[in-house]
Amino acid sequence: MSAATQTTGLVEIRGVSKSYSGHEVLRDVNLTVRPGEVVAILGPSGSGKSTLLRTINHLESVDRGWVTVDGALIGYEQRGDRLFELKEKEILKRRTQVGVVFQNFNLFPHLTAAENIAEAPVALKRVSKSDGRELALGLLAKVGLGDKADAYPRQLSGGQQQRVAIARALALAPKVLLFDEPTSALDPELVGEVLDVIRDLATLGTTLVIVTHEIGFAREVADRIVFIDGGQVLEVGTPAQVFGSPKHPRTKEFLGKVL
Amino acid sequence: MTDTVQKTAPVVVNRGTPPATTDFNALKVVHTRHYVRWVFGALVLFVVLQFLWSLATNDRYGWDVVAEYFFAPAILRGLGLTLALTAVAGSIGFLLGTLLALARLSKSPILNSVSWSFIWFFRSVPLLVQVLIWYNLGYLYPQLGLGIPFTDTYFLGFDTITLISQFAAAVLGLSLHQAAYSAEIIRGGILSVDQGQLEAAAALGLPRHTRVLRIILPQAARSILPNAFNEIIGLLKGTSIVSVIALGELFYVAQVIYNRNQQVIPLLLVAVIWYIVLTTVLSIGQFYVERHFARGAERVLPPTPVQKARRWVSEQWARLDETPSVGAGIDAKSESFRL
């Protein structure tokens, strides 16, 4: 939404293919996400949209093709005409530029909300322990959970847990935030509070890539919609284009079912 | 208890007849009588009392001899050695076991298969046999030291017999045996941690040692601990095996004494009581350690025995000025279900 002012957070996906034991989940996927852009990825289940999202921060390796964030490969480094696989430490460093919010939250159950958020910034020596707590409290206030700093994840509702997970991803100030079906594991009445937080983020200028089933939310918040089926990008366009006049017959069919 | 008494009358469903207006709270509750339970309870109580009576009256137990030797310096020295063996072999065993478990889960095929072979071998050889082999290592390798590989030239050498004392042989045997078993327990614990936790930790860019020490092991600890305490208690009693190499731990000392004075049962009782005392201490420790690692896994931590006792006393006080009612009866039942 504020794409023009943003300079970092460019994601380029070029010719990415991936198969699991013979079954091809991604086929020659090309996609560019501009700095500060909000992109929603839609598609039927099993279409490869989550896998595509996970290749962006190297949680999933690719068989062919490459993914860059601001021009840098996440897992490799180019020196002359060769690509060197990076040491784990270096991969981790690059990974912190890309935050992930998972479908099942994946909060650390033995740490409190504040500890969950402060863990990475403190472990990566970006802040001291006490500053880490300050940082966590600030982020919790931002997602509307200022009073839950010392609660353990299991003492929170699903919606609250997901908001803590978003705060945790924000703690490293990533250039790109990936959302893997962030509301799919939530009770219907809790979906709204999580979408509100994501909506706020969309106006702040971080690049957001959101895999979602919330069609209404995607239409409202996304700059562009990407439709994937059978591991291929079938259609890319503004919400008005894709929802108003879908070109691909499969997009039409999918939207017909979910709208 | 008083604060949990239901003030409202239970809902009564009547079909056909008009709703009853009786105040059930005013009625007295008669509890169900469990006659069979009472009969079996009395039977068990009889057997227990009979056994306790025999403990007190059968003078072959020789309680005076037990009392005489319970704090004897030799016994206490043996006890100290038993504790030292348990502590040293337990620490080395679990440390090595953790490394073996991590090696077993690593992507390196060499580390993986070496770890597997170690566990396979030391689980295959009986502890007793292993201790004897370590003690007799001097027969196989009279000299140990640093030298040119694959030759008999040493720069720095020791006689195996002086290097591997009885204590060293016992520690080697016990800790290698322990390492093999604890490796599998720790590996099982690590495998029980949800895959999503690893992904979240990786996505946050946490360094490997942070992932292992701060995220994975504390969560694995919940399933590791009950088994680990089992192993440590097993190790504590397992130390009695090293009496075969005449190492003066608790059981060996007891044997030496009864061989001299023929008071076999009383001295075995001395050893038994000490083992019971130590196991009790470990079991209490287990409760608190497990409670510590239950943080976050349970919404409310289970009460400690001290907290339980306090609550029980205050409940009994409260009960003195309380009249039983239907609500209280129901509540007491649900309480006992939870325990």
**Share of β-strand residues of chain A:** 25-35%
List segments of chain A where confidence is low: pLDDT < 50 over at least 5 consecutive residues.
none
Biggest sheet layout of chain A: 6 strands, mixed
Biggest β-sheet of chain B: count, sense, barrel? 2 strands, antiparallel
Helical fraction of chain B equals: 55-70%
SS element count, helices of chain A: 9
- The whole-number mean of residue pLDDT values of chain A reads 89
Structural class, from secondary structure content of chain A?
Answer: alpha/beta
Placed side by side, the strands forming the largest sheet of chain A appear as 8-9-10-3-11-12
Number of strands of chain A: 12
- Strands of the widest sheet of chain B, in order across it, are 1-2
Total beta strands of chain B? 2
Mean pLDDT of chain B: 86
Question: Which percent range describes the beta-strand content of chain B?
Answer: under 5%
The greatest interface between two protein chains, and residues involved on each side, is:
A-B, 31 and 24 residues
Spell out the helices and strands of chain B N to C. HHHHHHEEHHHHHHHH
The parts of chain B where pLDDT drops under 50 for at least 5 residues are 1-6, 325-339
